[in-house]
Structures are given as structure tokens and as C-alpha cells.
Design brief:
With 209 residues, the protein is mainly α. Helix content is 69%, strand content 0%. Among the domains are: 54-122, Serine Threonine Protein Phosphatase 5, Tetratricopeptide repeat, CATH 1.25.40; 145-209, Alpha Horseshoe (Serine Threonine Protein Phosphatase 5, Tetratricopeptide repeat), CATH 1.25.40. The chain contains ten helices and no strands. Helix 2 (55-70) runs antiparallel to helix 3 and helix 6 runs antiparallel to helix 7. The longest helix is centred in the first third of the chain and has 19 residues, at 8-26. The termini are far apart.
Length: 209
């Protein structure tokens, strides 16, 4: 009697044959197509490098603008400052001096915007703080003006211009004691400051003594 034996090779061949027949039936007797995937793909186009900043040209525009500003040619100065900032948008003095030109032209809001930008780049720019304080004072926003003078004096306690202007802001508010105190501090720094002396006398008269 023959024994039922398991022959691995035969079973494997039968299994492969059965799988092939089933696959052929499922695909209608056609061999399924193989989608080819390219082994190599091209890299995306590199982004163009930014143009190098011509700092020398920006500074040349700035210098021309400052010269025009001193001559009172504010519109021409603004054009030079615009050109400087188009080359280098982080040129702090470009915003600062353009703010002066706008202020002299009566464009106070634009001046404040430029001094905002100046201070965003350089928060300790005390001249910009003083100038913005003057602009706020001229808009009758005395509290904001005093805040800017306070910050300027926190950074530079002996900044006599900010002291004088803060005294004037207090004077406008009718706070003559504070105004006099600021102008007296100015005289400690500049003993011959005639404006501080006359302002103190006027404030004392308005205060009543």
C-alpha cells in the first residue's frame, strides 16, 4: 500500500498554477499592465536669489535727502528718502528724516508713521521719541506726548530737549508745577538756557506766584 506523502515541490507548483489561473480569470485573460515609476525625478527650479542690497547707494540717497531737507526742499528730500528706503527698507535714518520732511510739510500723521517705523527698528532712538512727542502734542494728544518724552528721558536722563518739550506739554495741560520742575532740570544741564528761564517766569505768573 502506498502511503500518502506530502511533496513540497508539487504543492508549490500546483499553488502557483491555481493563482495564475485565478488572476487570468479576474483580468479577463489579460496580463495586468505594470505602471512604470521613473527612478530619477528632476528637482524643482531653484528660487532666484534676492538682489544684493547696495548700501552705499542707499546712504548716498540719504545724504542727498538730508542736504535738501536743510535747504527746505522737503518734497525733493522725501523723494531721496523714498529711494533710499526702496534700496534698504531697514535704513532707520531714512524713516527718521523723512518724518521730519513730512512734519515740516504739515503731514503730521505721515510723520508719526515714519517715526513709528524708526522706533520699531531702533526703540532707543531718543530723537524719534522726542519728535513723535512733539507731533502728538501738536495734535493735542498731550498724554501720548508725555509718554514719549518720559521714554526718551528714561533712556537719556540728561536729554534737555525732551525735558523742555515735556515741560511745555505739562504747561499746555495747566500743570505748571510739573512744567516748572522740568524747566528747572533743563537749567541744571544748560544754565544759560534763556527759553527755560523765560518759561519758568511765565509759568509762575500763570500759577499765581
Amino acid at each position: 500500500m502506498k502511503k500518502n506523502i506530502f511533496v513540497p515541490g508539487i504543492c508549490v507548483c500546483i499553488s502557483i498554477l491555481v493563482f495564475a489561473l485565478l488572476t487570468a480569470c479576474a483580468s479577463g485573460g489579460k496580463t495586468p499592465e505594470v505602471t512604470e515609476v521613473p527612478e530619477v525625478v528632476e528637482a524643482p527650479e531653484p528660487e532666484p536669489e534676492p538682489e544684493p542690497v547696495n548700501f552705499e547707494e542707499a546712504l548716498a540717497c540719504l545724504d542727498r535727502g538730508r542736504a535738501l531737507l536743510r535747504e527746505g526742499k522737503n518734497d525733493e528730500a522725501i523723494k531721496e528718502f523714498d529711494d533710499a528706503l526702496a534700496i534698504n527698507k531697514n535704513l532707520t535714518d531714512g524713516y527718521f528724516y523723512r518724518g521730519i520732511a513730512y512734519y515740516d510739510n504739515g503731514s503730521v500723521d505721515q510723520a508719526i508713521t515714519d517715526w513709528d517705523d524708526t522706533l520699531s527698528l531702533q526703540p532707543d532712538y531718543v530723537e524719534a521719541l522726542n519728535n513723535r512727542g512733539v507731533a502728538y502734542r501738536n495734535q493735542d494728544d498731550l498724554d501720548k506726548a508725555i509718554e514719549d518724552y518720559n521714554e526718551a528721558l528714561r533712556i537719556k536722563p540728561d536729554y534737555s530737549i525732551a525735558l523742555s518739550n515735556r515741560g511745555l506739554a505739562y504747561d499746555y495741560k495747566g500743570d505748571y508745577d510739573q512744567a516748572i520742575a522740568d524747566w528747572e532740570e533743563v537749567l541744571k544741564i544748560e544754565p544759560n538756557n534763556a527759553n527755560a528761564k523765560s518759561d519758568i517766569e511765565r509759568a509762575r505768573q500763570l500759577r499765581g506766584n
